[in-house]
Write a structure and sequence with these properties.
Layout: H1 39-43, H2 49-53, H3 55-58, H4 60-65, E1 68-71, E2 76-79, H5 82-90, E3 95-96, H6 109-117, H7 133-141, H8 147-151, H9 154-168, E4 173-175, H10 176-181, H11 183-193, H12 200-215, H13 220-246, H14 253-263, H15 270-301, H16 303-311, H17 316-327, E5 333-337, E6 341-343, E7 346-348, E8 353-356, H18 358-361, H19 397-414, E9 419-420, E10 441-443, H20 450-453, E11 476-487, E12 490-497, E13 511-516, E14 519-524, E15 534-540, H21 548-555, E16 561-568, E17 579-585, H22 589-601, E18 605-612, H23 621-627, E19 632-636, H24 645-649, E20 656-662, H25 664-673, E21 682-686, E22 702-706, E23 712-715, H26 721-727, E24 745-750, E25 753-754, H27 762-767, E26 770-772, E27 777-778, E28 782-785
Parallel strand pairs: 2-8, 17-18, 17-20, 18-19, 20-21, 22-28
Antiparallel strand pairs: 1-2, 3-5, 4-10, 5-8, 6-7, 9-10, 11-12, 11-16, 12-15, 13-14, 13-16, 22-23, 24-26, 24-28, 25-27
Helix pairs in contact: 6-13, 9-19, 11-15, 12-13, 13-15, 14-15, 15-17, 15-19, 17-19
Bound molecules: FE2/S2 (inorganic) cluster (FES).
């Protein structure tokens, strides 16, 4: 029998009781409440209407200034930044999901008595059980979520969507939530589970009661009603299960689970099945209904994007993914720390309860460029945390994606002229976990319905692919507007969107990937980032390079069309310091200049040091001289001037940030010179990957031991650790796959790393704790990683 270590009673600080050891913290500045809880943290109320309407916006202050804070109102530690939220999701041994379904508002004894009358006994299910039970059951029950199995549901989703739209297409208005988005996912959920499609109205009431019961703040009077509905839901789930047991043959996840129970009675128990039945009905439909309503609202508010997907429905999967990132239906989830630990530099006590806010993480500007905007060409949108992350990631995510794609396909094809009804107020059911409007009113002119003149559109279909859209297939089409001589050997390219629209906002240090035939190259953006209609890059012709810059210099001309990815930013400017040293070598001036522009704009103390072989080959020199006079030092080698790096960084302290982009040697020297400074002082970006410098012919095989599951993945010579993990079905994110961005990094617990990346600092490499899986290897026969 799988053993769960039950952590539900690992008591954290009770609500309203300050968790800080005041006597020991006399040196920490106090706020008016007498403890280190800031006034913003003290005021945080996840049930407030403003938070319910836009949680990511309400938590902006936290992402920017206090990314992990204690909420006295909630009795939880709130985690809001992308990397921290993801790290908590990833570590399912330190952070238990045991409290994921715990009532956030404890019930009165009267309400508890009501539940007792119904013998309510919700046990641990896939979302809130610990290892090893969780993985054992997950493996036993995964079959129904395989792409082949999910494809069985496509015809039904299409048929239902067609029928529901038929009902209102000629009416000219609809409440999409009540007339379509709630019922179709519920029907699909029941079909998926193998539950008969009856009592739909009751199930909606039960679902809402379950949400309020677990994640809401019902009044004592409401608690009695909620308890009654939850009790009835429990009994209903039990009866359906009994009926199913009589004949568990055929399609349906619960029927499959009943059959598996016969093979694995100790793994899949009776109480487990009963609980899964109830949780499954809620999990499989409410989240999809909310996510689609959020997506439609978002797209109809951004009419250019809506029109774009109406014209080109092949963009729908990436629109769905971006909407899931921007406005997914799962706002936050919960964990409990099993040991004292630190998150984002904040000490969390053993038993500390965590509210990890997915929706805030998805708007983290340090991870998603122009995070608050919707950008359907964002190629890392699928890295959102709306489905969670790691071993507890939502099992039904691909069913939800498929439904959302089909809903959008049908609506964009049949009602492209649909608009949000004006002056509607969006209301949300107050709770900490799920978010979607209770109504979504839309209207349109029925005389313009395309099917009236072109009935054949009803029969067109987009092929549905299971899963998130492949990153490789997401790109922007641009046109070269201008090519100009920027300096000796350097050309400047101005790019415009092929359709004439605006580009997303980008931040200093950002780059784009230029896709040129079968290869891609990264170029830092160097224009004015307040201009949205163009992007500018400068390209140095590298005779000894890999061929990308030569191709650009020798072949491209104004009017040519190109594909690009981004903008993205792996070299982000930390604006919180008081003093800045910017150092550029040669073409490294491109990201550095955008940083200088920003620092000048916000009035920071900065100095830009620019070294090159001679003035005629130093790109953008005129602009630097003009815009940064008084903050600028120039070092043309031809004039005998050399940057004395030691002197330049000698005054740097913890409140200084040094940004450098230039040749490898320059960066290596600066890394040595800054060794004694705190690690957040020096930031650098290399021109390009350098793993051709390694002799890969001597690569040997090694093993990756996955700490969470004990799985062993062999990495063969010539194969990257990243590809070996993927081939074994382990999801690891990546972006550049050249050792430049750090996206594919994993934490190393044992073994010695052969670092080959350009992203970790020397000190980080020496620590031997992080491995960049797209290029680095092992010096030891095996490496244990935190996956
Ligand atoms: Fe960019 Fe590995 S994917 S460093």
């Amino acid at each position: 029998m799988p053993k769960n270590t039950d952590h539900t009673n690992d008591i954290a600080t009770p609500v309203g009781v300050c968790p800080f050891a005041h006597g020991a913290m006399s040196s920490i500045p106090k706020d008016p409440h007498g403890c280190p809880v800031s006034s913003e943290a003290d005021a945080f109320d996840p049930f407030s209407p403003t938070y319910q309407a836009d949680p990511a916006d309400v938590l902006r202050w936290s992402r920017e200034r206090e990314p992990v804070f204690y909420s006295p109102k909630l009795g939880y530690w709130v985690v809001t930044r992308y990397e921290d939220v993801k790290a908590v999701f990833r570590d399912n041994t330190l952070f238990s999901p045991a409290n994921a379904l715990e009532k956030i508002t404890p019930f009165s004894s009267e309400a508890e008595a009501v539940l007792k009358r119904y013998n309510y006994g919700m046990a641990r299910t896939l979302v809130n059980e610990d290892e090893p039970a969780h993985l054992e059951r997950r493996r036993a029950l995964m079959f129904s979520f395989s792409p082949e199995e999910l494809m069985h549901h496509e015809p039904m989703v299409r048929r239902l969507t067609r029928e529901y739209v038929d009902r209102f297409v000629n009416k000219g208005k609809a409440d999409l939530v009540n007339e379509m988005l709630w019922e179709i996912p519920l029907t699909v959920a029941l079909h998926f589970l193998g539950v008969p499609e009856e009592d739909m109205g009751k199930l909606r009431e039960y679902s809402i009661a379950h949400t309020v019961n677990t994640w809401g703040r019902p009044t004592p009077e409401q608690q009695l009603k909620v308890a009654d509905s939850v009790g009835k839901f429990w009994n209903y789930a039990g009866k359906v299960l009994e009926r199913m047991r009589e004949d568990p043959s055929g399609h349906g996840w619960m029927k499959y689970a009943i059959r598996r129970q016969k093979e694995l009675p100790d793994v899949i128990t009776d109480s487990y099945l009963h609980s899964m039945m109830m949780a499954g009905i809620v999990a499989a439909h409410e989240t999809t209904a909310h996510a689609t309503a959020n997506a439609l609202r978002l797209l109809l508010e951004d009419i250019n994007t809506w029109n774009r997907i109406c014209q080109d429905p092949s963009l729908i999967p990436q629109a769905v993914e971006e909407c899931l990132r921007h406005s997914g239906s799962i706002v936050a989830w919960r964990r409990v720390a099993l040991e004292e630990t630190e998150i984002g530099g904040v000490k969390i006590p053993k038993g500390g309860k965590l509210l990890i806010v997915n929706s805030s993480a998805n708007h983290d500007q340090s991870y998603f460029e122009d995070a608050d905007s919707i950008d359907i060409f964002r190629d890392n949108a699928s890295e959102h945390l709306s489905f969670g992350y790691g071993s507890h990631q939502c099992l039904g995510k691909n069913l939800a994606r498929m439904e959302m794609c089909i809903f959008l396909e049908e609506l964009t094809r049949r009602l492209p002229h649909m608009r949000l009804s004006p002056n509607q107020e969006f209301k949300y059911l107050p709770n900490i976990a799920f978010r979607g409007p209770e109504n979504l009113f839309v209207e349109w002119d029925v005389n313009l319905n395309p099917e009236r003149t072109k009935p054949e559109i009803l029969d067109t279909r987009q092929a549905v692919k299971i899963g998130a859209p492949a990153k490789d297939a997401i790109f922007r089409e641009v046109v070269i507007d201008q090519i100009r001589h920027e300096a000796k050997g350097v050309v400047g390219l101005t790019l415009k969107n092929k359709d004439g629209g605006d580009f997303p906002r980008w931040s200093p240090g950002a780059h784009i990937d230029l896709l040129l035939g079968d290869f891609s190259r990264k170029y830092s953006l160097c224009g004015d980032n307040r201009r949205r209609d163009t992007l500018e890059i400068a390209v140095l012709k590298e005779e000894e390079g890999r061929g990308g810059s030569k191709y650009i210099h020798d072949n491209l001309k104004p009017g040519d069309q190109l594909r690009i990815k981004g903008p993205k930013n792996n070299f982000r400017l930390d604006e919180s310091a008081n003093r800045y040293i910017l150092i550029a070598g040669g073409i490294g001036i491109t990201p550095i200049l955008t940083m200088a522009d920003r620092l000048a704009e916000v009035g920071k103390d900065y100095c830009l040091h620019y070294a090159g072989s001679d003035r005629s080959s130093m790109a953008l020199l005129g602009k630097v001289q003009q815009d940064h006079a008084g903050h600028f030092e120039c070092y043309p080698k031809s004039e005998g001037k050399r940057a004395n790096l030691q002197a330049i960084v000698s005054e740097a302290d913890a409140d200084t940030r040094i940004y450098v982009c230039g040749p490898d040697r320059m960066i290596e020297v600066l890394e040595e010179l800054c060794e004694s400074l705190p690690e957040n002082v020096l930031h650098f970006e290399h021109f390009a990957a350098k793993h051709e410098a390694y002799d890969t012919s001597k690569d040997t095989a090694f093993d990756l031991v996955l700490a969470n599951s004990g799985m062993v993945v062999s990495v063969q010579p010539g194969q990257t650790a990243l590809n070996a993990l993927r081939a074994a079905g382990v999801e690891v994110e990546s972006d550049c796959e050249e050792g430049l961005c750090g996206n594919c990094e994993v934490e190393v617990l044992e073994g010695e790393i052969d670092h080959r990346d350009n992203v970790l600092a020397r000190s980080e490499k020496a620590e031997n704790k992080r491995m960049v899986t797209c290029c680095s290897r092992a010096k030891t026969q095996a490496i244990k990683i935190a996956l």
